[in-house]
Specification:
2 domains, two-stranded antiparallel sheet, 47% helix, elongated, Cyt_P450_sf, oxidoreductase, iron
Length: 164
C-alpha cells in the first residue's frame, strides 16, 4: 500500500512540475481545475519563490480564523486550592473566567492589526507570534485542553480539501 501511495504521489508531483514549467515559459494551462488553481497562485509563488517562510499554509489560515473567532468565548475554571499569584490571592472554590476572545484580540499581544485577518503572523509558529506567552488557546490550555483539537484541525483541512 505504501508503494502505491509513493507511486501516486510521484505521478501527481510530476504532473504539477510539468505544469509549473509550462507556466514559467508562458504557456496557458487553465483549461482544467489544476491549471486554474495553479494560475491563481502563480504570482504569489513567483514573488516568494526563494522565501519559503512567507508562503501561507492552511494551518496558518486556520490558526488566524481560530484567533479571530474562537470556538469558545470564555474558559471557566474553578480554583481547587488556595493560590497566590503575585499580590492576588484566589481562594478555593472561586470561579475564574478567562475571556478567550478578548485575549485573542489584545493589541498588546497581537499588535496594532489585532482585529485584522493576517495569517502571515503565524509564519514562524504560535510560540513565536505569542512571544512564548499563553495567549493563543482556541481549544483551551494545559491539562484540560480539548482532546479533539487535532481531530478538529484535521477534519477542517480535509473538508477544505474536499471543497476545493
Amino acid at each position: 500500500m505504501k508503494q502505491i501511495s509513493k507511486e501516486v504521489y510521484a505521478l501527481l508531483r510530476g504532473i504539477v512540475n510539468k505544469r509549473e514549467k509550462a507556466m514559467k515559459v508562458g504557456e496557458t494551462t487553465n483549461s482544467d481545475l489544476l491549471g486554474m488553481l495553479m494560475e491563481s497562485n502563480f504570482r504569489e509563488i513567483q514573488e516568494h519563490q526563494n522565501n519559503k517562510k512567507i508562503r501561507i499554509s492552511v494551518t496558518m489560515i486556520f490558526h488566524e480564523v481560530l484567533r479571530l473567532y474562537p470556538p469558545i468565548a470564555m474558559l471557566p475554571r474553578v480554583v481547587y486550592k488556595d493560590t497566590q499569584v503575585g499580590d492576588m490571592c484566589f481562594p478555593t472554590g472561586l470561579q475564574v473566567v478567562l475571556p478567550t476572545i478578548l485575549v485573542h484580540h489584545d493589541h498588546e499581544i497581537w499588535g496594532d492589526d489585532a482585529k485584522e485577518f493576517n495569517p502571515k503572523r503565524f509564519v514562524e509558529g504560535v510560540l513565536k507570534v505569542t512571544k512564548n506567552q499563553v495567549s493563543f488557546f482556541p481549544f483551551g490550555w494545559g491539562p484540560r485542553v480539548c482532546i479533539g483539537q487535532n481531530f478538529a484541525m484535521m477534519e477542517a483541512k480535509i473538508a477544505l480539501a474536499m471543497i476545493l
